[in-house]
Amino acid sequence: MFVSVLFSLGIFFSERSLSLALPNVQSDSSRAIFSSVTGILESTKSRTRSLSERGSINYNPDGTPFLWLPQDEYSGTSFYDRWNFFNHPDPTNFLDKKTAFDKALVSIDKDGTAIMKADDFTSLERGKFRDSIRIESIDKYTTGLFVLDLKRAPWGCAVWPAFWTVGSDWPWNGEIDIIEGVHDNEHNQVAWHTAPDCNINTTVGFSGSVTQAGGKAHTDCNAFIKSNAGCSITEWSRASYGPYFDSQGGGVFVMKWDENDISIWSFFRAAVPKDIIAGQPNPSLWGVPSARLHSSQCSINKFFKDHSIIFDITFCGDWAGNSYATSGCPDTCEDRLMNPKNFENATWSINSLKVYRKQVLAKGFTQVVSSAPGAYSKLPTWGVLFVGGFVICSMV
User: Fold this and answer.
1) Which residues does UniProt assign to the signal peptide (predicted)?
2) How many domains would you assign to the chain?
3) Which of 162, 276, 293, 388 is most open to solvent, judged by the fewest CB atoms within 10 Å of its CB?
């Protein structure tokens, strides 16, 4: 006798398999269940067409369909609730959470914008370190679609900001620098730092340029060579970093990280895709990314896992300090730190950071759970998947 059909994530059923499972069921209650299920199957066919028309269904290289579903959001008055404030010894004086709020280096504007800024009001003696902010997410991520909407990003002489992710036991679990630059640069630099045997495949398609140093391309991501330069790609757009990005009203940066590749897109405000604004992101509609690390020459699942998200504003240091003399900035990096007015543009102004998870829509089999012998069936037919409050139907 039929007992139940389980409706849950990852459990699939079909009209045909239910027919096989229920050949002799005569009770009114069982007929009602069967009628409800077949009705759902019919209605979800139109839902699938609707999803496809909106462009929210994505596809893996092997044709497997999937969705990017909301996982986490950092925004509004709760923005700072799930971050640790890094305040360990560093040439930049990073503040703990209480001190950062007390000094108003972090705040939430009335419109819900999260602000992180450098100290732009304290005059320092030469050799003293300036106060700043570095926060690290409590939650850790292995793969995802990360959508950062910014009004402003930090820039200026001696300033070295970054939005990045990193795993524990560095560099064995990898580092991904999504936004990074120094001084008054106009082009964002995307970088990866890994254990040996991970490289950029320059033939897979991206619009940026592989960073050059000493006449050689930085395609080897190995953090143990080249003074930890890693592998990197510089974006072509002048609106991807610095004063021009801010003057355009900011924009959106996206990192797609899955088993296929790690890709980065940046959009100035007027060019943000409608599917991102609607909360139904579909990277396949955005054209080639600015930067891409492809699994053909770097095993993504091997080299990247359990990452925290990090925002920081660093001063001088390995990059901004060592490049200062050739940057066109005045005096020295150490001198620059003394005057607070030099850091009026060293500010993150964040509308939101949204993280989406990849939900594969199964293909290949369906399942029915019943007390009747032989009720389990693997059949090529319509399947139904319940995810995130939606019913997804697809031919499997």
Assistant:
1) 1-21
2) 2
3) 388
Q: pLDDT tens digits, residue range 183-227?
A: 988 899 999 999 999 999 999 999 999 999 878 899 999 999 988
DSSP for 146-209, please give it. Answer: EEEEEEE---BTTEEEEEEEEESSTTTT-EEEEEE--BT--S-EEEEEBSSS-B--TTS--SSE
Q: What residues act catalytically?
A: 175, 180
Q: Is residue 2 part of a domain?
A: no
- Whether 3 is covered by a domain: the verdict is no
Residue 184: which of 312, 320, 335 has the closest Cα? 320
Nearest CA-CA partner of 207 in 105, 289, 285: 289
Q: Which of 148, 116, 176, 355 has the alpha carbon at shortest distance from 252?
A: 148
In a domain, residue 10? The reply is no
Residue 4 lies in a domain: no
Range of the domain at 118: 66-358
For 97, list phi and psi in degrees, rounded to 5.
-60, -45
Residue 288's domain is classified under what CATH number?
2.60.120.200
For residues 266 and 207, what is the distance between their CA atoms, to the nearest angstrom? 11
State the DSSP code for 225: S
Check whether residue 209 and residue 94 sit in a common domain.
yes
Q: What percent of the chain has pLDDT over 70?
A: 78
